[in-house]
Specification:
The structure is a single chain. The chain has ten helices and four strands, in the order βαββααααααααβα. It is mainly alpha-helical. It has a two-stranded antiparallel ribbon. Strands 2-3 form a two-stranded antiparallel sheet. Strand 2 and strand 3 form a beta hairpin. The chain has one domain: Arp2/3 complex 21 kDa subunit ARPC3 (Orthogonal Bundle). The chain starts with a strand and ends in a 12-residue tail after the last helix.
Length: 192
């Protein structure tokens, strides 16, 4: 590919049994992590249900990241009566996978870019739809940023384990040279 300094090849873009099971199991982990939420404000909780979309998106691509985000947020409406977590978690998985696959960027950074792009949706859904005060929305953005940072670190630590790297469905990653030569933003699985 012209303009790309480094690539790593992976499996076919089709969703096979292994990829489907990986996405479902890791996504279900997100639903379980929802149970361990720490309330910080009305309708605002600090939890790690965002680990699955970041991890699956960062290892297997945007489509599987989107699916893991959906599965991982399934229990959120049951606990809090809030369906707004679906598009948010799905967007994080999509962003982590898209920026990793297309640009070779770390899943954590891709998820943060998606988080920023999702802020208008978050504002509309929480302030206009739920009627939360703006101050509570700000608390929610801060708590979500914290949980996303923790989820990103956990995801990238898991991705650094050689046994996990060998066994999870992988995507093809391509990166421009400015990303491939920068260890701070380069995907951990990107060949130099």
């Amino acid at each position: 590919m012209a303009g790309h300094a480094a690539t790593t090849t992976g499996r076919s873009p089709r969703i096979g049994v292994k990829a489907g099971l990986y996405t479902a199991v890791i996504g279900a982990l997100g639903a379980i992590l929802t149970l361990f939420a720490i309330p910080v404000a009305p309708n605002i909780h600090l939890n790690l249900y965002v680990i699955p979309p970041v991890l699956v998106g960062g290892t297997s691509g945007p489509l599987l990241g989107l699916m893991a985000g959906f599965i991982g947020s399934l229990y959120t409406p049951v606990l809090w009566g809030w369906v707004g977590a679906f598009p948010y978690a799905m967007g994080l998985g999509l962003g982590a996978g898209f920026f990793a696959q297309r640009f070779g960027i770390r899943p954590t950074i891709g998820a943060f870019i998606a988080h920023v792009l999702l802020l208008p949706y978050s504002y509309w859904s929480q302030v206009n739809w739920l009627g939360l005060p703006f101050e509570i929305f700000v608390v929610g953005v801060v708590s979500t940023t914290i949980q996303l940072g923790v989820a990103g670190v956990i995801s990238e630590v898991l991705m650094s384990v050689p046994a996990i790297r060998k066994r999870v469905p992988r995507m093809e990653i391509a990166a421009p040279s400015w990303v491939a030569n920068n260890p701070l933003i380069r995907h951990p699985w990107l060949n130099r």
